[in-house]
Amino acid sequence: MRRKTTQPFHNRRNLFTSVRSYFSLHIYIYLIAVRALQSTGREEQMATIRSLRKLSAIRYRFISQSKGWRGSPVPCPHRAFHISQQRIKLAAESPKFPGASAEFTDCLEFIEPNMISTIPVYRVMDRDGQIINTSKVPQLSQETVVNFYQKMTLFNTMDKILYESQRQGRISFYATNFGEEGTHIGSAAALDANDLVFGQYREAGVLLYRGFPLDLFMAQCYANADDLGKGRQMPVHYGSKDLNFVTISSTLATQIPQAVGAAYALKRKNLDNVVICYFGEGAASEGDAHAGFNFAATLECPIIFFCRNNGYAISTPTDEQYRGDGIAGRGPSYGIRSIRVDGNDVFAVYNATKEARCRAAAENQPFLIEAMTYRVGHHSTSDDSSTYRSKDEVSYWEKQDHPIRRLRSYLEARGWWGEEEEKAWRKKARCQVMEAFERAEGRLKPQPDLLFTDVYQELPLSLRKQREAMWDTWDSTRSTIPLMPMKSNALCQQCPFPDV
Ligand SMILES: Cc1ncc(C[n+]2csc(CCOP(=O)(O)OP(=O)(O)O)c2C)c(N)n1
Ligand SMILES: *[C@@H]1O[C@H](CO)[C@@H](O)[C@H](O)[C@H]1NC(C)=O
Ligand SMILES: *[C@@H]1O[C@H](CO)[C@@H](O)[C@H](O)[C@H]1NC(C)=O
Ligand SMILES: [Mg+2]
């Protein structure tokens, strides 16, 4: 709620003193004026006039402070971002500075951030999956909603198996998405398949929704010969040109200005598509986030900034990351239309993204969505979150406010899903993931020579030396890693940009 900007009467006594002092001041000024007329010397006359002016100034200040009989100890009441109409009318002229459209004020006042109302969290369902306003039931078919649910649970199953894989030493690294499934599926479903996605590293659900096969997820994590990235990246750094999903680079926030540049290019080409750029609330503290927001606003780019606020940047909780009203609170100051949504409510995420997508394309404007959620898993397999947060905290989000559980309640209440469907689907999902996992593990590794391709047309001497050293080590350690056979000796001479 906005705080009230006006203050009541201070007290009766104050009102009385104001009136009395006002009249006695007038009488005093009158007496001095009479004396001035009687005096003869010019020096004396001037001195009287000076004291008269001084007194008038005191009188003026006195009147303006007691104006409206608000004898408040704070002469300028705090306000919430807007100047009251009355104040604007009082200003006789408007500022002409090119840097801001604002009004003059005689009030010395710093805006108190904690007096500004916070942005509410938009939601459609409550924590138990009940629609809050029955006139706003999502206009989505059973088939669509069941698909949301199946994608969310399949994704969750894939995460569990790949996480266990890392724990068993089968893959080198993994980062789960537990608890954030609603933000991925809800937003992905609201996009056009041709919209370009720039992700951070915890948005694999978006790629899954777009149809990236389980085999390719596994190939990337296992760095096998089928990996589109040719085994050159850490696990979870997916990318797919066919699905318009730009390859992940986990150097925080670098994707933000890149995404804005891509959106600007779409606008210049007069295309109807938009860019969506995902990032964590932690990444929003990087300078690149500021640069990206400001460029997008000033260049009027069709982009959706989608911030997943999951409460942590590794071990740093949000209350140590910022002092303002989250990430959505920053949007308006950049001139970006912004909303905060309940990220565990897949319908709220869907609706907000759909609306933002439609308007970004139609108006060539950036939009900011801050999806509030919780990172249920560890930051990654290199992290142990029990050292910085309690079991109870995690358990609340796992058991009482989880996007999958919430959607299931919604489905069950409508009679669209039941225990039987659940059992059959869970079995099927697990089976699909396990089969993909086994296939990936059995595959050969890509040729190490591929490490040196796709950057230089002609390999520089330094890299040629490194390649030699690599093969020397390979031979001397008698590596038994099963490699994909070399396709041809021309491998390294292939044009790295076949599309150009
Ligand atoms: C420039 C840079 N600094 C530090 C890191 C190390 N790092 C990796 S993830 C991470 C936290 C990011 O938190 P957030 O953006 O909230 O995303 P989340 O992991 O919560 O999804 C940090 C500090 C990095 N990858 N890049
Ligand atoms: C439900 O939404 C409609 C349409 O916005 C609104 O008119 C109505 O007041 C809402 N009902 C409640 C109970 O909030
Ligand atoms: C989704 O948004 C549209 C407007 O874009 C609105 O008409 C509809 O009621 C919303 N649906 C829900 C479930 O709130
Ligand atoms: Mg985070």
List the helices and strands and how they pair.
Blueprint: H1 12-38, H2 42-66, H3 85-90, E1 121-122, H4 142-167, H5 181-189, E2 196-198, H6 204-210, H7 214-222, E3 245-246, H8 255-268, E4 275-280, H9 287-298, E5 303-309, E6 312-313, E7 316-317, H10 331-334, E8 337-342, H11 346-363, E9 367-372, H12 391-399, H13 403-413, H14 419-442, H15 461-476
Parallel strand pairs: 1-8, 2-3, 2-4, 4-5, 5-9, 8-9
Antiparallel strand pairs: 6-7
Q: Whole-number radius of gyration? A: 32 Å
Beta-strand percentage range: 5-15%
Backbone shape: globular
Order of helices and strands: HHHEHHEHHEHEHEEEHEHEHHHH
The separation of the N and C termini measures 56 Å
Largest sheet: 7 strands, parallel
CATH superfamily of the largest domain: Thiamin diphosphate (ThDP)-binding fold, Pyr/PP domains
CATH architecture of the largest domain: 3-Layer(aba) Sandwich
Q: Which hetero ligands occur in this complex?
A: thiamine diphosphate, 2-acetamido-2-deoxy-beta-D-glucopyranose, magnesium ion
CATH class of the largest domain: Alpha Beta
Total domains: 3
The low-confidence runs, each spanning 5 or more residues with pLDDT under 50, are: 1-23, 52-88, 488-500
The protein's oligomeric status is single chain
Amount of helix? 40-55%
- Mean of pLDDT: 86
Identify the strand order in the major beta sheet: 1-8-9-5-4-2-3
Count of DSSP-assigned helices: 15
Counting DSSP E segments of at least 2 residues, the number of strands comes to 9
Kindly report the CATH topology of the largest domain: Rossmann fold
